[in-house]
Amino acid sequence: MKIPHTFTIVFSLVILCAVFTWLVPGGEFERKTVEIDGITRNIVVADSFQYTENAPQTWQVFTAFFKGFNKVSNIIIFILMIGGAFWILNATNAINIGIFSFLRSTEKLQRNKVLKKIGVNNIVITLIMIMFSLFGAVFGMSEETIAFIIIFVPLAISMGYDSVTGVLMCYVAAHVGFAGAMLNPFTIGIAQGLSGLPTFSGLEYRALCWIILTIIAIVFTLWYAHRVKKNPKKSFMYDLDSYWREKSAETENIQEKQKSSRATWFVYSVVSLALIYCSFAFTYSIITIGNSTFNIILFPIIAAIFIPFGFYSTYKSVHSYILSLLWLTIVILVVGVLGYGWYVGEIAGLFFAMGLTSGFAFSIKFDKIIRLFLEGCKDIMNAALVVGIAGGIIIILEDGKIIDTILYGVSQTMSNAGQTGSVGAMYFIQSVINILIPSGSAKAALTIPMMAEFSDIIGISRQLTVLAFQFGDGFTNMITPASGVLIGCLGMARIPYTKWIKFILPFLCILLIMGFVLLLPPLFWQFNGF
After folding, report:
1. Residue 289 pairs with which residues in a beta bridge?
2. Cβ(112)–Cβ(179) under 8 Å?
3. Across-strand partners of 44?
4. Torsion over CA of 417, 420, 424 and 427, rounded to 10 degrees?
5. Distance of CA 349 to CAs 81, 287, 323, 353, Å?
6. In percent, how much of the chain has pLDDT > 70?
7. How many CB atoms sit inside 10 A of residue 33's CB?
8. Dihedral of CA 54/58/61/63: which sign?
9. Which of 125, 156, 214, 237 could lock onto 161 through a cystine, CB 3.0 to 4.6 A?
């Protein structure tokens, strides 16, 4: 069978949701405004559901595209800017040369008998996944993974794997960490605030859950990567990955590093001066991790490391300097998110600046840089359009006034289910709702007030209710077509949605089962915070 385009699948789901607005009665909860950690949010009032006249959607399926673009415009613009910035970076061949240099280094490490037995590639994949899982667990990395797909997919291809392995290394690792989060302010922080629990309480058991889930993700990835390397045709993407293999083959012969030009030295000087300025203007950065804050002189440290390292890189070659710019961008990204509350707007601007400076350092004329940027936007446009129509799914459900009815209906399934059954029902409900509403903060405001009161009635810890929400909010992010992040990552990796679903479902089932198993110990034994 011919695989339908992702846009076709998502638009069909929009039509299906419109059909539901004719079949499901309308309803709504009353909502009230509360302030959590200085942020005002509208939350559902428990036991306030009332049936209302429904609003069947007809021609609105066509306006859902426009409204979806409005709803997720930040993600769409982010994808376009990232695509354009990396197109400029790719024109310098710096990433490809860096990948081949990295692979040559790993080949040298294979001479060590211990490392050879373990497998250097296995160590590389494991370390990368731990890092991204930790980012997801600590500060809720999600949208940021889109920018890393363009790095790790070519790396995975060059290591003898496939594009799916590249997505597993960063996107899936980050979202497994997101599900097993310890300090994620966007899920745990909000949900605990709405439940009246101390912020980031129950940290010890959550840390255990994160370790278990991360190990499962790493083992699964290593198993799949080994399977693909042993027989590349077993890859779900063997035929479609020809694009990436051809790209890799084109650059295998481009391994000579060019000497730095005056433009390279000029860009190095400007970036160094900018870091010196930041060292004085933002001498101390307040990094917040959970309830802990650290006042650190980050920019002076970054400047002290980059200036001599950047000088050495510039002296070696222009490609080495551009790679040092990429690393600087990633470091500043982490600092910006943890210390200054950056979101997709600031991150997109950061990568755009990286793309421009990379082009200038490579002595590309400004007009050519702009043309390369536009070519990158054009190349990634399909993914951006799909993200827009995916945003229309929730628009149809909200305008049809059935989203609250669906929530009320599934919440009634918990009645008379017992404690174990109720915990399982909460977990199932959160997982299903997450397919329609991927936003963790929005879903917390919608469900936690009711779930918290219900847990009091049946004698379940509110902390356990938050944990059920946390797992339910995380795992199904990997399949929901309403997620702009998932669609954006798949678009960057050139993986069709149907191919991805076929691949990820078995792994998702493992995570869902493990999530339920991890919910049971706090139900029967006492854990700190529960």
Report:
1. 292
2. no
3. 31
4. 110
5. 8, 21, 18, 6
6. 94
7. 8
8. negative
9. 156
Contacts of 352 (CB under 8 A, 6+ apart): 81, 84, 85
CA distances from 508 to 144, 178, 425 (A): 22, 14, 18
Cα end-to-end distance, the chain, whole Å: 50
DSSP annotation of 233 reads G
The two structure tokens encoding residue 251: 């650059």
CB–CB of 260/315 below 8 Å? yes
The 3-class secondary structure across 374-433, one letter per residue, is HHHHHHHHHHHHHHHHHHHHHHHHHHCCCHHHHHHHHHHHHCCCHHHHHHHHHHHHHHHH
Residues with Cβ within 8 Å of residue 313, at least 6 apart in sequence: 320, 321, 323, 324
Query: Whole-angstrom Cα distance, residue 411 to residue 427?
Result: 11
CA dist list (Å): 20 to 398, 402, 405, 446: 12, 8, 11, 20
Distance CA 346, CA 100 (A): 31
Predicted confidence (pLDDT) at residue 418 exceeds the cutoff of 80: no
Please give the distance of CA 69 from its chain centroid, rounded to a whole number.
Answer: 19
d(CA 420, CA 307): 58
CA dihedral 398, 400, 403, 406 (to 10 degrees): -170
Helix (H, G, I), strand (E, B) or coil at 161: coil
User: Three-class SS of residue 37?
Assistant: coil
The residue among 142, 55, 35, 64 whose CA lies nearest residue 389 is 64
Nearest to 264 by CA among 203, 325, 216, 222: 325
- Token code pair at residue 485: 């992040």
* Least confident stretch, 22-26, 69-73, 206-210: 69-73
